[in-house]
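Notes from hallway chat w/ T.B., transcribed later so I don't forget. T.B. wanted the structure written out for a chain they're using in a teaching module, and asked if we could keep both sequence and structure tokens in one place. Agreed to drop them here.
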Amino acid sequence: MRTLVTNILVVFILIATSSQGFTQEPAQPVSQPLPRSTPEAQGVSSAVILDFVQTANREVKSMHSFMLVRHGHVVAEAWWKPESAEKPHVLWSLSKSFTSTAVGLAVAEGKLSIDDPVLKFFPEDVPSEIPANLNAMRVRDLLTMSTGHADEVGFRNESAWINSFLAHPVPHKPGTHFMYNTPATFMLSAIVQKVTGQTVVDYLQPRLFEPLGIAPPTWDANPQGISTGGYGLYLRTEDIAKFGQLCLQKGQWQGKQLVPSEWVEQATSKQVSNGSDPAKDWDQGYGFQFWRCRHDAFRGDGKDGQFCIVLPKLDAVIAITAHTGDMQAELNLVWDKLLPAFHDKPLPEDASGVAKLRNAFEKLEVYEDKSQIAEHMDVQVTVGMNYLVYLPKDYDKQEKVPLMLFLHGAGERGDDLELLKLHGPPKLISSGKEFPFIVISPQCPERGRWSADELVALLDGLEAKYKVDRDRIYVTGLSMGGFGTFSLAARIPDRLAAIAPICGGGDLRTAGKFAKLPAWVFHGAKDTTVPLAYSQHMVNAVRKLGGEPKFTIYPDADHDSWTETYNNPEFYEWLLAQKRVSQE
């Protein structure tokens, strides 16, 4: 048996207080780009910047862009090809800081207060029985990620997101328990839309984006047309830097107060504690959708290494986009390699250093993992999506080998691949079980969800790297992975031979895309985490469209309906009997 640990670079393109008297100024003319300067003129060393960029290029897999602003001037800017200055980049959770800004503007306009109860805005979605902690939840608690939830709400495409949020258990008193909570940011977006009649992106256009000279951006919306809030915004690197500069200037831009200074001060200050490790930038406190960090800095950040870092004491802003699995390492490089570049006064001009910097920038390219797999060796490179690989013992003797893609549940997210061995095929493999498949077990990043686009990119790389029988590719997953299985089936039904979602669910509107795909669905009748109805609805939708999915309900099982499934030899026999057929 060969158990390998590897990864790929997944590349894909995804087509307070109330400031009474603060009134919104008319939209300002589009501003010019940020002024440019040599690093030395602003007291920054070109040589140290070069060392930082070269180190980041070696150690961060993979950097996409970098911009450094000092005293309001761009002193360094770089894009790793094929990224470019004009190409918008997905911000992931860095979007949250923009949603916070929208809330601050709405507060300033008198449309809401951060001490308003959340239920006030959604009377049509209030549960029939209102728990005390839910009743006590305020807008402030959404902003500080202290809603009282013990875990995140699992939004599903086919469900009403607001209703799902309000129905989720709130075991802790709001304001007392920090828990990173992207659905809470969605609720902020929904509140802004409720009180203004505009989506967050439309509301911010004349108030923020246009005055900053940011072209109308794209921001993903949920099925009900509400901007997702916690993710889904796309901006250029300089747009990120401008936003950071606005925050550095306490909301002032070209002589106009775009955002109340009081709001910026509150939003970027520590409002709640979130840890105690002095060496970890995720333990320095949390504001209103902004993180505090070491060196008296604050930031907005997003999955895979998107950063808007503001250093008030240095009068500097750093914008970074990337696709990396280790965001703390990325920040450590900023602190260790870039901070020494700053000086209190201008430095002598260094024409040679500037030329070397520009020459190095022109040669930057996005990292691609081209490493070969060594036999009987564990290989792990911190790039994109990490995964476990199992190759059957006779792999080398076969021309083509079936592939099983296993998607774990929410509890196994993070950067520790050992977590994957808690359940399912990885657990069985670690105990010595042999399989006739290539078994691929990717790990979803902490706080992430399975993305069909990322999984497609993963599959592309696997087919190029291994001897995959493309007529026998199977996808299975449990809980969150069950939802991911349905989502991937809807995305690429023609590439799969069969699916086996366990205690999951999916978007009923996509059932027609994979109705003819062989499927075996499993669920526990006593499941209270993901109710049985989620699988039942999907199975019924597929059957109405002419599909014939197998459906096994374990009458005495709760959420763990995967152990019995993956221990059943008949399950694997059924998978191997399925071959890819056209969905036409």
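Follow-up for T.B.: Residues 1-30, 369-383 have pLDDT under 50 and may be disordered. Might be a good example for the class.
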